[in-house]
Amino acid sequence: MGGETPTDESSQEEAATASAGSSATNESSDASSEAAAIDGTATAEPFTYDDGSVAPGESANIRYGISETYLGDPIRIPVTIINGERPGPTVFLSAAAHGDELNGIEVVREVAHDWNHSELHGTLVCLPVMNVPGFLAQERYLPIYDRDLNRSFPGRQGSTSARRMAHRIFTNFIEPCDLGVDFHTSTRGRTNMLHVRANMDDETVRRLAHAFSSNVIIGGEGPSGTLRREATEAGVPTITVEMGEAHRFQRRLIDRALTGVASVLAEFGCHRDSSVHWPGWRVVIDSDDEKTWLRADAGGIVDMKHGRGALVEEGDVICTITNPFKEEDDILDVEAPFTGLIVGVLENPVVYPGNPLCHLVGLKHETRLALEREGGTERSRSELR
Ligand SMILES: [Zn+2]
């Protein structure tokens, strides 16, 4: 199902990304002069979609039809629109474009239903479950010919079932927005450290990525058809947040993501009583040689020595691959080719040759110093998980 693709976006993205170098930044969020560019309208306006509208000061829970089942029944996605009394940007928060990636669902639900938005400037468009057929089946893809909804944006009328669904979502709930955050997890059987994927060449995307306050940002525009790339190209700067594993709620990651959302809403003036959060250290990865998926050179059973978020030194044994007899001669040590952070890692401990073992991201010396200063080494072994 997930095939050889280590995370949602990685293989194509790694092939496609070849710009700039990594940079370690210590400054807190850079923007403020740019705020005017994405203020939204001067007066609060209704949020309209093709079946209705939500007036300023009102909220609505909508079940919105995007397709039909074999029985002819509607396939409807849950959407919550919260329109503030005061003018400001329109921000979408979306999750479960891959139906088994659950962490983001809880992030979006808590923002929509547990937070107080009485002082909200602007509008929140909350899409906790976009791929409803995949969610019902607890599968990554749309169970209709295994289509990937997150390669089908912006969608098209009169096209495949996936593109029609994507089109309904995109035109009604993405295009009207000023910016967005799309939540994912690693593919089944693997796990990710919480990190942001963002096209750092786009000024507003960069500002959004910084504001989300994750320690790691992986640059690149993303594969064609992904929500973040297509939304960004359509004028709605969007980032992807990758966090943890499929098929579960991971409370610590959900809380960190909620901090990120609060920070974004502060940065763009939606929640003016909260403040932008600085993660303590940050590494921005933009070139191929600073990140790599280490792949197994032998089939076997994997004994992973380090978890998600761990800092490993060049030459450290990351894992061993053994046969069922644990024969000494057949134990293969997999060493770190450079010092870096383990951003993504195998959870299901079995591999064929060529299967991914871990996603290692290199750290520049100064980033590493900042990480150690902030206690990040410790944190990377515990809190960051
Ligand atoms: Zn995903």
UniProtKB/TrEMBL annotation:
Read off the lineage from the record.
Answer: Archaea, Methanobacteriati, Methanobacteriota, Stenosarchaea group, Halobacteria
Q: Which cofactors is this protein said to need?
A: Zn(2+)
- Tell me the domain of life: Archaea
Stretches of Acidic residues bias are at: 1-12
| Region Disordered, residue ranges | 1-39
What GO MF annotations does this protein's record show?
Answer: hydrolase activity, acting on carbon-nitrogen (but not peptide) bonds, in linear amides; hydrolase activity, acting on ester bonds; metal ion binding
**Species for this entry:** Natrialba magadii (strain ATCC 43099 / DSM 3394 / CCM 3739 / CIP 104546 / IAM 13178 / JCM 8861 / NBRC 102185 / NCIMB 2190 / MS3)
Bias (Low complexity) occurs at: 13-37
Annotated protein name in UniProt: AstE family protein
